[in-house]
Amino acid sequence: MSGLVLVGVGPGIGLAVARRFVREGMSAGLVARSEGTVQAAADALGSSDVLPVTADVTDEVGLRSALDRVVGAHGVPDVVVYNAALIQADRIGDLTAQQHLDAWAVNVVGAITTAARLAPAMAERGSGSFLITGGMPVPKPDYASLSIGKAGVRTLVTLLDQQYGAAGVHAASVTVSGGVAPGSGWDPEDIAEHYWRLHRQEPAEWVHELVI
């Protein structure tokens, strides 16, 4: 059975994306920092092929262990979605150096850890999608650390494509340009369809950043 690994599952985009892929018959490994959050998502999906695992994306050893558990249970994934982000209002000068590093660790380094652990095996197999939730198509001074992090995501996607694209791994980001809420222009269920379409694209059609 083909499988999804979703890092940073929550009640918004994460759950909607997991639901969309599970509906297609995929197994799912869900990762979140809070046991309550990840278990609630697993319960909402209502599938026996869903494995909830707790890990903090800033803990390299813990995250790698969580990913290994999912691979051990479901095999090398067909699609990986990195959806973790530290969303906070801050301007240049508001944060200490350590606080900026903490935000970068969630917004970018966790995705690097996830890719380093899973993308080589996907490339060896010759197929797969590595999708990252992006944002901030234009940097916003009131969200400095997040703007910087999302710029890092774009660069990471480019690097992943350069390193693994020729081996069949589709790297892409979904840049969400507004507030996510049911019934809005950024309804999570609608957003989830974009992830599914990216995953289903043929190599000749690959898009590496989708702005919605």
From TrEMBL:
InterPro entries documented for this protein: DHB_DH, NAD(P)-bd_dom_sf, SDR_fam
SUPFAM superfamilies: NAD(P)-binding Rossmann-fold domains
GO molecular-function terms, A-Z: 2,3-dihydro-2,3-dihydroxybenzoate dehydrogenase activity
Any Pfam family: adh_short
Gene3D superfamilies: NAD(P)-binding Rossmann-like Domain
BP GO annotations: siderophore biosynthetic process
Name by which UniProt lists this protein: Short subunit dehydrogenase
